[in-house]
């Protein structure tokens, strides 16, 4: 699969129905469409800002899907861009209303940093998630005990209540693997993450058993990058690629760091990371070997 398979198509509001999409996807779709309309009409961000009495930076944030927008401002921009088709205007104004709805993770807002919000919103609506992890089992595949241990390492000053809330958020995210239709997850995990007993040996053994079970799901593929493979295509660190259904948006490349995250949106960058991900699945052990490898590590743990 390649990033150019997810080229933009006109926004289909039916794809955004339901709670799973949430406001973030609506913001991204609306922002992408407004950006394309502005560029097609050769309007600068400064000029667009004047139309809605806003700054250039606000137009940039709007087009990047980083906050909601007033339907009135969207209507003014559409008029300025010469959009007269009533169906298109109605679709985009509906997206503007959806973009201001509460996010699904609002209940956990106190433990959701701003730089993860796009990922959380897109993840819940994604049809495909590809990821590579080096130090930890991927969040979506973690058991509660493993998640708590991992959270304590990342947030050593957090109290028990905060740890529980962060863990609950992580478990809620994992429900996308059990919904209908379920998201397709394809994960490559470095052997180091499976050998490191996060939370102690008992917690790690339960985590390995959980991976063995979840690998049986038809929409979950797990591959292991063994130590013996030596160097590999993703030595720069973990990476996640998310794809929305229906070609609503280009794929999202998410690179999480210690206290922030990068979202790559240039076609050349997305294509490069797809190339890395596709090379990883060739370099890693076959998915058919994953249960055998996990059983062996479990016996040695």
TrEMBL record:
Molecular function via GO: DNA binding
Gene3D superfamilies, sorted: lambda repressor-like DNA-binding domains
Domain of life (superkingdom): Bacteria
Domain HTH cro/C1-type: 33-88
Name used for this protein in its record: XRE family transcriptional regulator
InterPro entries: Cro/C1-type_HTH, DUF5753, Lambda_DNA-bd_dom_sf
């Amino acid at each position: 699969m390649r990033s150019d398979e997810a080229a933009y198509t006109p926004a289909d509001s039916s794809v955004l129905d339901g709670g799973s999409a949430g406001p973030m996807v609506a913001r991204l779709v609306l922002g992408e469409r407004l950006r394309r309309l502005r560029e097609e009409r050769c309007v600068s961000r400064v000029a667009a800002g004047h139309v809605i009495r806003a700054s250039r930076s606000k137009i940039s944030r709007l087009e990047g899907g980083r906050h909601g927008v007033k339907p009135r401002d969207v209507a003014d921009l559409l008029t300025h861009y010469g959009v007269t088709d009533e169906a298109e205007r109605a679709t985009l104004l509906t997206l503007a209303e959806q973009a201001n709805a509460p996010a699904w993770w609002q209940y956990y807002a106190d433990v959701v940093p701003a730089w993860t919000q796009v990922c959380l919103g897109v993840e819940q609506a994604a049809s495909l998630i590809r990821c590579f992890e080096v130090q930890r089992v991927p969040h979506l595949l973690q058991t509660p005990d493993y998640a708590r241990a991992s959270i304590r390492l990342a947030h050593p000053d957090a109290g028990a209540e905060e740890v529980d809330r962060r863990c609950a958020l992580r478990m809620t995210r994992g429900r996308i693997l059990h919904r209908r239709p379920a998201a397709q997850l394809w994960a490559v995990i470095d052997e180091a993450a499976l050998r490191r007993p996060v939370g102690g040996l008992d917690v790690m053994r339960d985590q390995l058993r959980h991976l063995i079970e979840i690998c049986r799901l038809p929409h979950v593929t797990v591959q292991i990058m063994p130590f013996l493979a030596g160097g590999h295509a993703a030595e720069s660190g973990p990476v996640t690629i998310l794809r929305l259904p229906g070609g609503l948006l280009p794929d999202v490349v998410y690179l999480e760091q210690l206290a922030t995250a990068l979202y790559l949106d240039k076609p050349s960058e997305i294509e490069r990371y797809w190339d890395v991900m596709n090379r990883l699945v060739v370099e890693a052990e076959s998915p058919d070997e994953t249960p055998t490898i996990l059983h062996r590590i479990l016996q040695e743990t």
